[in-house]
Design goal:
Elements: H1 2-6, H2 19-25, H3 45-58, H4 74-86, H5 89-103
Helix pairs in contact: 3-4
């Protein structure tokens, strides 16, 4: 079940996406646009997702993502993450997983925290002091207390 894969059991390689989890994620991903230039074939979305999870899990920098892992380049994974984020994939996935957990009665609300504060003012607060003008003009000296204006020295 997805719950064990997402919340519970720890895997030795948590960046590998299971078939069950992929079946939930894949429909949420936007269709790739047409390829503008010929070149390397597009890295499959599932491999790119594994690369994204690898970087997020290990903390490695995107440019150091090892090519040997088969996830594509770090820049490819980073671009895919940005595109999916812009398309709202993560919010949709969150809702899908919550719905699945709710229907399986697997949500543990004993660990939920709600934080808020509301303080009623006993009286009206003090009147606001008018802000000092920021209009063009001379400002008071901040370097000398004895003079009303800053002195100007001329270097010749």
């Amino acid at each position: 079940m997805v719950v064990g894969l997402v919340v519970g059991k720890r895997q030795s390689r948590p960046w590998i996406v299971s078939d069950e989890l992929w079946s939930l994620i894949e429909p949420l991903l936007p269709e790739p646009g047409p390829k503008l230039v010929a070149g390397r074939p597009r890295v499959p979305d599932r491999q790119a997702l594994c690369g994204i999870l690898f970087v997020l899990h290990t903390g490695i920098q995107w440019e150091y993502l090892p090519q040997e892992l088969g996830f594509g380049s770090g820049m490819t994974c980073w671009r895919r993450l940005a595109a999916w984020n812009e398309a709202g994939v993560w919010e949709k996935l969150h809702l899908v997983l919550l719905k699945k957990l709710r229907s399986a009665k697997q949500l543990d609300w004993s660990r939920a925290v709600i934080d808020s504060s509301h303080v009623r003012a006993a009286r009206r607060g003090p009147k606001a002091v008018p802000a000092r003008s920021t209009a063009h003009g001379r400002a008071a000296s901040t370097t000398s207390l004895s003079t009303g204006r800053a002195s100007r020295s001329r270097c010749r």
